């Protein structure tokens, strides 16, 4: 019995401190404290984000997604990442297979699952970054300034959020996200290509 307790303690001590994952909602999706519960009228969400001086971002996730779990466990739970997102972004979570009604920027009202099909989202997580102004009649995916499809490590994730927040997609300096990210890796000089 003592050996079992000792082994359990050793395993618990080996887990990283950031292994805490946000609570899960009734829909089976992780609910970070910085996610917004809205009526999912994207025009209203954009107006509210702008009023707060934040950027609107859509997190498309699904129940049972191991890559979503990985992002919530290993990236979004890190204090510096969570703080950066909370301070700079207005996050609306979208369920890939959900039935909650969304009103897209073009005025079309449809279920989450129909909207994600319209936006050509095939897998999760998929993070869609929106500009501060969306052209009239544009759908969310057509207005997006960047899309982050898939699970990435802390460095890549934070670099993408920073690149969008700093509006580097507008700069005519020849530094697209890949060049920006490569430069940030060198500046961090951590030897990891994350």
From TrEMBL:
**Residue stretches making up the Thioredoxin-like fold domain:** 50-133
User: Domain of life here?
Assistant: Bacteria
Signal peptide limits:
1-19
Q: Does the keyword DNA damage apply?
A: no
**Any keyword DNA damage?**
no
Q: Gene3D superfamilies from the entry?
A: Glutaredoxin
What SUPFAM superfamilies does its record include?
Thioredoxin-like
Which keywords appear in this protein's UniProt record, sorted alphabetically?
Answer: Signal
Question: In its UniProt entry, what is this protein called?
Answer: Thioredoxin-related protein
């Amino acid at each position: 019995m003592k050996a079992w307790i000792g082994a359990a303690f050793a395993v618990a001590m080996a887990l990283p401190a950031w292994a805490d994952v946000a609570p899960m909602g009734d829909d089976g999706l992780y609910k970070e404290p910085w996610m917004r519960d809205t009526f999912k009228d994207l025009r209203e969400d954009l107006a509210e984000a702008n009023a707060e001086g934040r950027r609107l971002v859509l997190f498309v996730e699904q129940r049972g997604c191991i890559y979503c779990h990985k992002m919530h466990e290993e990236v979004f739970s890190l204090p510096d990442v969570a703080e950066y997102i909370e301070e700079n972004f207005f996050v609306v979570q979208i369920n890939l297979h959900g039935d909650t009604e969304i009103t897209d920027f073009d005025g079309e009202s449809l279920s989450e699952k129909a909207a994600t099909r319209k936006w050509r989202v095939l897998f999760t997580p998929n993070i869609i970054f929106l500009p501060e102004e969306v052209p009239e009649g544009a759908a969310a995916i057509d207005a997006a300034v960047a899309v982050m499809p898939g699970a990435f490590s802390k460095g890549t994730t934070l670099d993408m959020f920073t690149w969008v927040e700093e509006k580097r997609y507008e700069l005519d300096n020849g530094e697209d996200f890949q060049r920006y990210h490569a430069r940030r890796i060198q500046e961090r000089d951590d030897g990891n290509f994350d």
